[in-house]
Automatic annotation (TrEMBL):
It comes from Monopterus albus (Swamp eel). One of its GO terms (molecular function) is structural constituent of cytoskeleton. It holds the Pfam family Filament. Residues 52-314 form the IF rod domain. The lineage of its organism: Eukaryota, Metazoa, Chordata, Craniata, Vertebrata. Residues 140-171 form a coiled coil. One of its GO terms (biological process) is intermediate filament organization. SUPFAM superfamilies: Intermediate filament protein, coiled coil region. It comes from the Eukaryota. This is IF rod domain-containing protein. InterPro entries: IF_rod_dom, Intermediate_filament. GO terms for cellular component: cytoplasm; intermediate filament.
């Protein structure tokens, strides 16, 4: 009578742990051995979950012990006010020493009441934890039972399906033999030829797609190589442009210096004189050298821009 209803229901659930075998109506006539298979599967499942049952029963026993302890504390708390009243009536109107003893006893009783109240609160909290744990285990067991029942039913349905497929194959083989005896071989030959033609068509389509994919891959590889080449050329031309810019700045400085000092070619940098002599084969003024340099500089810029446009399009 001390166990609450939730523990009794948990015990009933744990005592009813079994695997529900599929309905016999689902097993068609002539298929033997499924009942014994389901019983064997249920026995294996019960053995697999024996440890979980023992843990759940141990939790239930601990929970029952806490409930007994809580009820004993409640009975003790119920008896304490009566004892306090008896002590109060006993020592009422007594001499002064007895009053002091009464006050001391009264204080001890109240301290005992507080201690028991705290213990009762702790026991209630522990009981709540145990109830939650028992509920979690109960839900877990129910879910596992449901899953195991579904697995057993799936296995049985799979076996039934395999048998039905085997029967249908036998019927198809029998119908083929009957068709051959009835002289329907030309129709079967036409069907076989149609299947072969369809397979051949799909194979040719697959080969065509594979060939297109290979060509596309080669084209992409070629484009990547061209892009890399253009990128290298752009980098090289950019470095040349930077060098020409530096040389142009230096040339401007040299021109300013030469205009202020002399107007001959003797004060030009030897490197620019050599470049101009190689390009034109004659001596020129600093302004002519600068104009020639700007001309090459503009041509390089146009080339770089065209390469960048080609790279962007690629």
């Amino acid at each position: 009578n001390l166990l609450p209803k939730c523990i009794v229901s948990s015990l009933q659930v744990s005592s009813r742990i079994r695997v529900q075998s599929p309905s016999p109506s689902r097993c068609r006539g002539g298929r033997l051995g499924y009942r014994s298979t389901a019983i064997k599967l249920g026995t294996e499942i019960n053995e697999h979950h024996a440890n979980e049952k023992e843990e759940m029963q141990a939790l239930i026993v601990r929970f029952a012990g806490y409930i007994v302890e809580v009820q004993a504390l409640e009975q003790r708390n119920t008896a304490l006010p009566a004892e306090l009243t008896a002590l109060h009536s006993r020592y009422k109107g007594s001499p002064t020493g007895i009053g002091e003893e009464y006050e001391l006893k009264f204080k001890e009783v109240w301290e005992l009441i507080e201690v028991l109240t705290n213990e009762k609160g702790a026991a209630d909290i522990e009981r709540g934890y145990l109830e939650e744990e028992v509920e979690v285990w109960r839900l877990k067991v129910e879910e596992e039972l449901h899953i195991e029942q579904l697995v057993a039913e799936i296995e049985l349905l799979k076996k039934l399906h395999d048998e039905e497929v085997a029967e249908l194959r036998k019927q198809i083989e029998y119908s083929k033999m009957t068709a051959e005896l009835d002289g329907d071989r030309p129709d079967l030959a036409v069907a076989s030829r149609s299947v072969q033609e369809a397979e051949k068509w799909y194979k040719s389509k697959f080969d065509t797609l594979k060939e297109h994919a290979g060509k596309h891959e080669e084209h992409m590889k070629t484009m990547k190589d061209e892009i890399t080449t253009f990128h290298n050329k752009v980098t090289e031309l950019q470095s040349q442009i930077d060098a020409l810019r530096d040389m142009d700045v230096k040339l401007l400085e040299e021109e300013e210096q030469s205009d202020s000092k002399v107007t001959t070619m003797s004060f030009l940098p030897n490197s620019w004189c050599k470049i101009l002599q190689v390009k034109t084969g004659s001596n020129h003024s600093p302004k002519t050298v600068r104009a020639t340099t700007l001309h090459y500089y503009i041509r390089l810029i146009v080339t770089v821009l065209s390469l960048q446009d080609s790279h962007h399009w690629g």
